[in-house]
Amino acid sequence: MLVTAAALIWLTGLAHSVLGERYILIRLFRRPDSLPKLLGSTAFTAGTLRFVWHLITVVWWALGYVVLALGSGPLSRDDLLLVIGATALVSAAFPLVFTRGRHLSWVAFLVVGALLLASRSAGP
Q1: Radius of gyration of the chain measured on its C-alpha atoms
Q2: Among the residues of 2-118, which ranges form H helices?
Q3: Cβ proximity of 78 and 106 under 8 Å
Q4: pLDDT for 60-90, tens place per residue?
């Protein structure tokens, strides 16, 4: 059951990113005057919408991994910190790429990821 649930989470995330990009984001970005100009252009707005859209998929995939891993037994504190920390680091890449670092959430994601990974096996 957990494998099936994890597979459904993974497939739903994939569909969310691929279909959302194709049928929602691209169409939205093609419409003239559909986006507000933030930081001087619509490029920042489009980049922010795009990274947040795909970030949802990354987070669901991390949860799918946790569900799949639970099929092998209980997860340790370090295992959970690794998954969440790695997810935070991957999350930091999205605003860096899609907004060229102008959306500063990458800083928070990077710090969170580093702190979580550094806290593994270091105790509470």
Answers
A1: 17
A2: 2-20, 26-30, 42-70, 77-98, 105-118
A3: no
A4: 999 999 999 999 999 999 999 999 999 999 9
